[in-house]
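[agent] plan:
  1. take the single chain provided in the ticket
  2. run structure prediction with default settings
  3. attach structure tokens to the ticket
  4. add a short note for the reviewer (M.T.)
[agent] executing step 1
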Amino acid sequence: MIAGLKLRARRLKTETYALMLAYRDPRVPWGARVFAACVVAYAFSPIDLIPDFIPIIGYLDDLILVPLGIVLALKMIPAPVMAECRIRAKELESAGKPINRIAAAVIIMVWLFTAALAIWLVMRKT
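[agent] step 2 finished; step 3 output follows
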């Protein structure tokens, strides 16, 4: 069972790399490119929208949202493009996991905005 989960995780990682290559391909429709770029940015971001230290829901994005986003993005991208990107993704995997600093910055901004809004609401009530 553990070996099966590791295999699925490895395939998911390869698909994420392939999506990263696919959203840059001009043959991919713009809607699919935008959606795939968002999924890849979130998957490679070092910061989660829902922090992992929050019990149960902290891992919800890693276990459900990211794989679901990948599946939906794969359905939007033409099969021949994905086939080429999968081949290139396997080569890229050996180079290491890319980090998307822009996605990390956006997520940090969301958290800062949320914190500022909460502080403002508390100060307004007092």
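[agent] step 4 note for reviewer: The chain has a mean pLDDT of 82.
[agent] ticket updated
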